[in-house]
Amino acid sequence: METNQLLQLANEYGSPLYVYDGAKIELQYQRLEKAFNKVNSLKINYAVKALSNISILKLLKRLGSGLDTVSIQEVQLGLMAGFAPENIIYTPNGVSMEEIEEVAALGVQINIDNLSILEQFGAKHPTTPVCIRINPHVMAGGNSNISVGHIDSKFGISIHQMPHLLRIIENTGMHINGIHMHTGSDILDIEVFLYAAEILFKAATEFKELEFIDFGSGFKVPYKKDDIETNVEELGKKLSKRFNNFCKEYGRELTLCFEPGKFLVSEAGYFLAKVNVVKQTTSTVFAGIDSGFNHLMRPMLYGSYHHIENLSNIKGKERFYSIVGYICETDTFASNRRIAEINEGDILCFRNAGAYCFSMASNYNSRVRPAEVLWYENKAYLIRERETLDDIIRKQVIVDFETEPATI
Fold first, then answer.
1. CATH code for 36-260?
2. pTM, rounded to two decimals
């Protein structure tokens, strides 16, 4: 999106504000489709947790996507957005048996990642098709918090527990129609990914009625100029060839599935915030904005990098700033960052704000959450109104101590 478009939206809808470029989402979706166009059957299931606004889900449905969900609420959002149950996969972790059964009753594809739940579910619902999430014990991901395929991870059934897994399936007579893995986010080395895929292929030979193999996702996107990213074109070429050969060996045409979240929406997102104050200290120049980690948590949670531009002075002389929020504790978006000279009232733009940004937003400090706008086909759509204090207190039950009788 162009600078003047973003400034216009900040002026029209106020700040802070999340803006999503629908054309970029389309481009990323088509890029993934093209990378794997040698596969006869490809299914892309968007990871809802990255950005769960219903209008974004509807846009992805229009592109042909399915959904990857991790909670019953995400399943319900998908159904509200018009997705058919068979186009939704549900991969929870540590949830109750009751929730899994409730989701299964909706006709959604169940993906189970631990032996206890697998045995319980198989004993009660042996005819319901189930996918199994395998932990290949391969470390992949750019941060320990988002690397989920290693040996100490809470996710997936260990590849070393395969004998136990097969015994449960034999004892319950359950139907396994898919096998799944997810190694982590921000994958750089596709050879590591392909190595994990080989482990999954080997495990797949143990199951005779598979319909699909799900390789998760975790493709890294660039966060700054000249940043490295996952080469999905090379991965597509190598994995497609191996997958097609495996299907021949298996004796059946299978569907290759992916679950991209960040890859599809990260670069499409812009977070706009106004500078409230420029504060010079003995060693630092702070630019304090009208937001905080209540709206954009990733820098404080993961130490993640978001490129920051001063839209109000895009060609100005660069100076060093620390960009901070208004939350009453350490609340830093960037330290000692070169940014075009900042003045109070300027609009700053945070790039890569489409994934795990609004979805992690909160009402900490009793601050309201921002509005969201979708820019699509040269038109702005308000897809979430800015909250008000009424939204914050709507579910609170207020006790009137003036009228309540005192207790001793």
1. 3.20.20.10
2. 0.93
